């Protein structure tokens, strides 16, 4: 397997999961300016990361890749146990991907949403407020749990990634003690450390 990634992007979640599987894999860093190159567009037509190549087959979309890794390495037990366990993992993956991740887009690139630069600050402030509400839900979910769904899963590295973004983009996380505890645990995890070191983070 070969993972195409951009340091610190959502592809870091896949990188961590690959470490957690304990199986050999390859990575290929894609420079930001190369995302729209003809060579990379052959791999991912949308010019974004991640992309996962497995024996000539290419899979895109972060949630799909995370699910594929969980299914490919069931011994790692990262996909949830039983129908309800798997559903819980998918529930929180969907929330992080569809609600939290998408809410960062105006923070990262407000010009994509509003041409008037004078309105960018207001847009970003509104997005940060919504993000705080989302992180409040995640903090409550972690009460009494070390991991988002109770056991370590493919949802946890994605949560770790968006927490890193929140810290880097001044999203107010004050008072969220469960998230702070979770983030510190992830920073101390051997697989997380290995993936971050490989990405130069």
Question: Would you mind describing this structure in some detail?
Answer:
With 201 residues, this protein is α+β, with helices and mostly antiparallel strands. It folds into 2 domains: 2-76 and 193-198, 3-Layer(aba) Sandwich (Glutaredoxin), CATH 3.40.30; 82-189, Glutathione S-transferase Yfyf (Class Pi), Chain A, domain 2, CATH 1.20.1050.10. The protein is 56% helix and 8% strand. The chain has 8 helices and 4 strands, in the order βαβαββαααααα. It has helices at 11-21, 38-43, 62-72, 82-108, 120-141, 155-168, 177-188, 190-198, and strands at residues 2-5, 26-29, 51-54, 57-60. It has a 4-stranded mixed sheet, with helices on one face. Strand 1, helix 1 (11-21) and strand 2 form a beta-alpha-beta unit. It is globular and about 50 Å long. The protein starts with a strand and ends with a helix. The mean pLDDT is 97.
């Amino acid at each position: 397997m070969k993972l195409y990634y951009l340091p610190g992007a959502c592809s870091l979640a896949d990188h961590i999961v690959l470490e957690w599987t304990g199986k050999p894999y390859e990575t290929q860093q894609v420079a930001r300016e190369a995302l729209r190159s003809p060579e990379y567009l052959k791999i991912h037509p949308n010019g974004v990361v991640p992309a996962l190549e497995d024996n000539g087959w290419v899979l895109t979309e972060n949630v799909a890749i995370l699910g594929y890794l969980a299914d490919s390495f069931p011994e790692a037990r990262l996909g949830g146990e039983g129908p309800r366990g798997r559903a819980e993992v998918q529930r929180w993956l969907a929330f992080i991907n569809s609600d939290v991740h998408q809410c960062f887009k105006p923070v990262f690139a407000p010009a994509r949403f509003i041409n008037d630069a004078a309105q960018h600050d207001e847009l970003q402030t509104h997005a940060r407020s919504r993000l705080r509400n989302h992180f409040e839900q995640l903090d409550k979910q972690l009460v009494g749990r070390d991991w988002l769904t109770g056991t370590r899963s493919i949802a946890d590295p994605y949560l770790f990634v968006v927490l890193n973004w929140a810290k880097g983009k001044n999203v107010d996380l004050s008072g969220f003690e469960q998230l702070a505890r979770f983030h510190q645990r992830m920073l101390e995890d051997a697989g997380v450390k290995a993936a971050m070191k490989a990405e130069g983070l």
